[in-house]
């Protein structure tokens, strides 16, 4: 019994070591697409971030803004309008991609909220549910049973409620969310919201005006 256990532990340690090496290698690569990305040490790098996810704007745009967000996060809720304004101003030249990054350790209802958004997405109402979750996050954020609120939002969006209930707990939806979380972890997401612009970590903006300026500058460079 001891030898098989030791072998299993060795394999797990080896796999973790390989994963750490790959993440470190990806973070050390220079970014040839954008000068906006920077790590905590100030070095440019190209993280493992793909443009796959829920999208808005121009799907053929050269400038891609990826957001990792958590529906129970107040900072993410505050950033929602900022992102919406930027997208409105540059809709023909910008594509927005939203990826789920529920931080369950501090936001107990964040995972089921992400599931609610994904379930609504199966009925082509992802962005509508996305907006409602952020708009009303103070209502459902700390309640014992947020599902009651999500069903109310689903009804407001005229979704098939029985299908929504089934999809809400579908394992495939959770798997999809976990893939987003893994991608964020590999890209060194530590807090939310975290933005990546053209594949590189976007520097933290000091207010809406600077956020807009960074996006506008990236669009000009991409032309």
Could you describe the 3D structure shown?
The chain has 223 residues and is an alpha+beta fold. It has one domain (47-222): Glutaredoxin (3-Layer(aba) Sandwich). The protein contains 9 helices and 5 strands, in the order H-E-E-H-E-H-H-H-H-H-H-E-E-H. It has a 5-stranded mixed beta sheet with strand order 1-3-2-4-5. Helix 2 (74-89) links the parallel strand 2 and strand 3. The N and C termini lie far apart (63 Å).
Question: Helices, strands, pairings?
Answer:
Blueprint: H1 2-28, E1 54-57, E2 63-69, H2 74-89, E3 94-100, H3 110-121, H4 126-135, H5 137-140, H6 147-156, H7 161-168, H8 171-186, E4 194-197, E5 200-201, H9 208-222
Parallel strand pairs: 2-3
Antiparallel strand pairs: 1-3, 2-4, 4-5
Helix amount = 40-55%
What form results from the Cα inertia axes? globular
Alpha plus pi helix count? 9
Stretches where pLDDT is under 50 for at least 5 consecutive residues are 1-47
What strand line-up does the widest sheet have?
1-3-2-4-5
For the record, the count of structural domains works out to 1
**Structural class determined from secondary elements:** alpha+beta
Give the rounded overall mean pLDDT: 84
Which CATH architecture would you pick?
3-Layer(aba) Sandwich
| SS elements, strand count | 5
Strand content: 5-15%
Q: State the fourth-level CATH superfamily.
A: Glutaredoxin
Cα radius of gyration in angstroms? 19 Å
- Which CATH class applies here? Alpha Beta
């Amino acid at each position: 019994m001891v030898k098989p256990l030791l072998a299993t532990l060795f394999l797990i340690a080896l796999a973790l070591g390989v994963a750490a090496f790959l993440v470190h290698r990806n973070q050390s690569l220079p970014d040839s697409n954008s000068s906006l990305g920077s790590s905590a040490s100030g070095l440019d790098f190209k993280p493992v971030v793909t443009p796959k996810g829920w999208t808005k704007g121009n799907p053929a745009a050269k400038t891609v803004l990826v957001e990792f967000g958590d529906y129970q996060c107040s900072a993410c809720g505050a950033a929602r309008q900022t992102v919406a304004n930027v997208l409105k101003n540059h809709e023909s030249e910008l594509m927005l991609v939203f990826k789920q990054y529920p931080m369950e350790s501090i936001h107990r209802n964040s995972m089921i909220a992400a599931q609610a958004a994904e379930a609504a997405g199966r009925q082509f109402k992802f962005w509508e549910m996305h907006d409602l979750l952020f708009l009303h996050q103070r209502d459902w954020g700390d309640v014992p049973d947020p599902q009651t609120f999500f069903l109310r939002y689903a009804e407001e969006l005229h979704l098939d409620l029985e299908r929504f209930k089934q999809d809400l707990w579908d394992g495939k939806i959770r798997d999809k969310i976990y893939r987003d979380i893994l991608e964020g972890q590999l890209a060194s997401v530590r807090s939310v919201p975290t933005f990546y612009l053209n594949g590189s970590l976007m520097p933290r903006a000091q207010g809406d005006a600077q956020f807009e300026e960074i996006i506008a500058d990236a669009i000009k460079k991409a032309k």
